[in-house]
Design brief:
With 204 residues, the protein is of the alpha+beta class. The protein has 2 domains: 28-154, Sandwich (Immunoglobulin-like), CATH 2.60.40.420; 160-204, no CATH class. 17% of the residues lie in helices and 25% in strands. It has 5 helices and 9 strands; from the N terminus they run H-E-E-E-E-E-E-E-E-H-E-H-H-H. The strands form 2 sheets. The protein has a 5-stranded mixed sheet. The chain has a 4-stranded antiparallel sheet with strand order 2-7-4-5, with no helix packed on it. The protein is flat and about 70 Å long. Bound molecules: copper (II) ion (CU). Residues 72, 130, 132, 135, 140 line the site of copper (II) ion.
Length: 204
């Protein structure tokens, strides 16, 4: 008796709000410090980064409703959030603890819900993601861009962007240049029609 066995390629990807996160060509932090006033517009960062732009001092409440049966340890960079609700079901309870648990990582239960709050008092670009790495790699990531205009004012003294970032305009133009080419990077980018705003000099 013959049995046929089919091997199927099964592709699984995870997402928040039907957005499958993909790392942007230009890292979101670089966009935040180089996009001028457009940095406050979430669309500037690209749809697949699922960006939320926060104002300085805002109290942010995040509700995660897990529509899948697996638990996910979700992690937020840049903050210790207060957990105000966690359940095995939906958000059906308005009770907030007097002294809520503070964490930067918490499991959202399978088919459960999680609610947490933090104050946007730490300008930066912070990702929110599942800490099971393959879930994050396959898309379970969102981005909080916090007080980008303040970040632009202060970044040169607090953020050291890697020197390799000056190649981004080159990559964006789909060209590469030989090391040691005498013309300035600005000239190289201009000749390729690339956006020079990525070349904003970063003070040491
Ligand atoms: Cu996960």
């Amino acid at each position: 008796m013959q049995k046929e066995i089919r091997l199927l390629k099964w592709v699984t990807s995870w997402m928040f709000n039907n957005v499958n996160y993909k790392p942007p060509e230009l890292p979101s932090l670089f966009t935040a410090v180089s996009a001028g006033e457009k940095a406050v517009d979430a669309g500037t960062y690209g749809e697949s980064t699922q960006t939320f732009v926060l104002e300085r001092g805002q109290v942010v409440e995040v509700i995660v409703q897990n529509n899948h049966m697996l638990n996910h340890p979700v992690h937020l960079h840049g903050h210790n959030f207060q957990i105000t609700h966690r359940s095995g079901g939906g958000i059906n309870d308005t009770h907030v603890a007097q002294n809520p648990l503070r964490r930067d990582t918490i499991v959202v239960n399978g088919l459960g819900a999680l609610k947490f709050r933090f104050r946007a008092d730490n300008p930066g670009v912070w990702i929110f993601h599942c800490h099971m790495e393959w879930h994050a790699h396959s898309g379970l990531v969102a981005t909080f861009v916090e007080a980008p205009m303040e970040l632009q004012k202060n970044h040169s003294s607090v953020i050291q962007l890697p020197t390799g970032s000056d190649r981004i305009c080159v990559d964006a133009a789909g060209q590469s240049f030989e090391v040691g080419q005498p013309s300035s990077k600005e000239e190289q980018c201009a000749s390729q029609g690339a956006d020079q705003s990525n070349l904003t000099p970063i003070a040491a």
